[in-house]
Amino acid sequence: MGAPEKSQSNTNSMQRVKVYHLNEDGKWDDRGTGHVSIDFVERSEELSLCVIDEEDNETLLVHPINPEDIYRKQEDTIISWRDPERSTELALSFQETAGCSYVWDQICTMQRNLHFSSLNSETFHSLNSELRELPAVELTTLPLILKIVTESGITDQMRLTELILKDHDFFRNLMGVFKICEDLENVDGLHMIFNIVKGIILLNSSQILEKIFGDELIMEIIGCLEYDPGVPHSQHHRNFLKEHVVFKEAIPIKDPLVLSKIHQTYRIGYLKDVVLARVLDDAIVANLNSVIHANNAIVVSLLKDDSTFIQELFARLRSPSTSMESKKNLVYFLHEFCSLSKSLQVVQQLRLFRDLINEGIFHVIEEVLQIPDKKLVLTGTDILILFLTQDPNLLRSYVVRTEGNPLLGLLVKGMMEDFGDKMHCQFLEIIRTLLDANALSGGAQRANIMDIFYEKHLPELVDVITASCPEKSGNTSEGATRRIFTKPEVLLNICELLCFCIMQDASRTKCSFLQNNVTEKVLHLTRRKEKYLVVAAIRFVRTLLSVHDDYVQNYIVKNNMLKPIIDVFIANGNRYNLLNSAVLDLLEHIRKGNATLLLKYIVDTFWDQLAPFQSLTSIQAFKVKYEQCLESAGPKSTADAVDPRRRIDERALEKEEEDYFNEDSDEEDSASASNTQKEKPTSNIQKEQPKPHLSNGVAASPTSSSPRSGGLVDYEDDEDDEDYKPPPRKQPEASEDEEGELLRLKRKSPCVEREQEPSKKPRLGKSSKRENVFAVLCSTLSHAVLTGKKSPGTAGSAARSIVAKGAEDSRSSEETNSSSSDDENHKDDGVSSSEQETSDNGKLNGEESLVVAPKSSPEMAVNGS
């Protein structure tokens, strides 16, 4: 079941067509889509071409097959004709090529059958008998031969071709009659011979073409075609070929077959392009081109296999005794020889080019590029392009060698010269191909070529731009004298090459361009009056910024590179042209690329100039992007300013704690501090300490307003608190157990203290022994800090590790013993601000958050109350 269904679908697709009708306006109207078939129509005995609509099965077209030659096949899928009854043009467009060929063969078969069934007259019988054998070629039989050649149908053309090829004397006798008619000036006979020869050529038989294009008949055949009835005067093709066409041999060719094919190829080309250019159809032209192609392949193959010929050719090219005229002919021949090699297969062509390289063809081209004759120089570049088309690595492998370096320099030099209208950017194309990074192979060779190019030849190209541009407005007189005239097309090609280099290797190009100030020199083009050169410079900067490199952006900002571009944009005004679009495109690229540095640079530097253009969408978007960058950069910069200070404080605290815990005798320090406290009264503490200290040992500023710079205790403002008397402290002797507990608490790390702090608070509130221990510790450490006999780091560490715990126990006593007048004094003296600063500081640094209780006064914290 599957096979028949598949076969049916294939048949339907082969017969699926679209019907077109040519209207009065000369346009094709689509009449619908359906399936075509050739069959007998009801109530008619004629075979007809029928198309049935594929949707509603209605008849779209019924056309009886006409025996006349009215059908044409086009592009393998279209059959068109002119309906003689309706005087309309119709066409069928097939979905499948096979379907078109099938229907075309059926139409031809039907025409042949109709032709033989309808023609029963004596004329047909005589014609049919003549097709069995051609009549003798004489002046009296020319009309009959002309009728056979021009009026034979498709089926008879094959028979006619066979008869002509079988009769070996047909063309010889025909040429004899032509000479007689020409001598007698028989114009009618000459016209008939012209139509006979043209009809034979239109048979499109390769065997007949090979016969008439031979050396024996070609000139006579061209002579027959001089007498065209459609031209009032006869043409003189033979005279042109014999007298005006000169065959030059740059080097003697000894093979007669090669000479014969060369002459034949030229004459066939002349016949195709000049003599029969008006009457040849596409099929005949394609057949003639295939003959020319085959001849070229034969010529090149025979010459490349002749080793003596190639050696003699290059010996003459390298010989200093060769005259300039001979050298020109040799170079032209070499170019023709390389061009004809395209007729060979790819493998043979590559082998030929390698043989030419071994013979030294690139060295020959180096010499050619140094000749003043510009036509000869361009011929040499054409040869290089042929090699690059075949395989770019052939030329790259030569250029990277020491002996090949001058060739690249000559190409760069040729790019900077003016070749007039004959220059088609060959030099630019060759250099681009050598530097192209998209090649399938040759990466190392390309890198070496780029190194050579950037080191030796890039400064030359940039200097051409600098020398051809006028100086700034202040130095007009000096610039006019030093300015060198260069065609704008050359400068445009240089800019295009520089942009190409950026796209190929951004990192290498960036370093080379910035070192040689290429960007600054290219922007000199903004001083030129040619607007397309100004646009080229802007496009170069746009390409350079596409690298998205911070170093490039810093370089542009540092050297104010965009100033010339903004200046020409402002000078252009509101004119909407290519210059305006190029600058806006550059700004749009910067905006979309989030180049914050360039955004700030442009707005901060040039916004006063760009402000009048805010009506443009690109300028508005650019300003909005700038404002967004400022908003996003604000909080980030503040955080960046705070974080380093915080990290420094944290590192200082860690260092102090480490120094404290590394002390050898903690108990001795505590005892000595206690004895010192007993010897000195409390009233002398303020005199001996000139300025307060932070917990990390840094001197505090009295006017500091930063939440992190405030000291834990503000001693300078304690003058108003002289009436304050702390409650008496009891200092019972600590037992051994209590001393062990003290040491254990002192040596705990800050992180452990923070973890255990919630659980310690209720314990400290319940134990009376612990209160006594902490009271002793607070008094001892506070007195040690104030006398200054211990180091600030050690005292600060002790205060952080121990006073924080005593502060919780002292809250209850502080709330009970403090009077209302003391609270007011503390508020007036900035004590409350000190407490707030300490609390904020504790939020930033967890290690300092427990040094002073939130509601305790500075004196209470020091005295341990």
Query: Tell me, what's the shape?
Result: extended
Average of per-residue pLDDT values:
74
Number of strands: 7
Strand content: 5-15%
Structure commentary:
There is one protein chain. The N terminus and C terminus are likely disordered. A hairpin with a 3-residue loop joins β5 and β6. The longest helix is centred in the C-terminal third of the chain and has 45 residues. α1 packs across α2 and α14 runs parallel beside α17. A 7-stranded antiparallel sheet has the order 4-3-2-1-7-6-5. The chain is mostly helical. It starts with a helix and ends with a helix. It is extended and about 125 Å long. One of its GO terms (cellular component) is nucleoplasm. It comes from Arabidopsis thaliana x Arabidopsis arenosa. It is found in: Nucleus. Keywords: Nucleus. InterPro entries: EVH1_PP4R3, P4R3-like_central_dom, PP4R3-like.
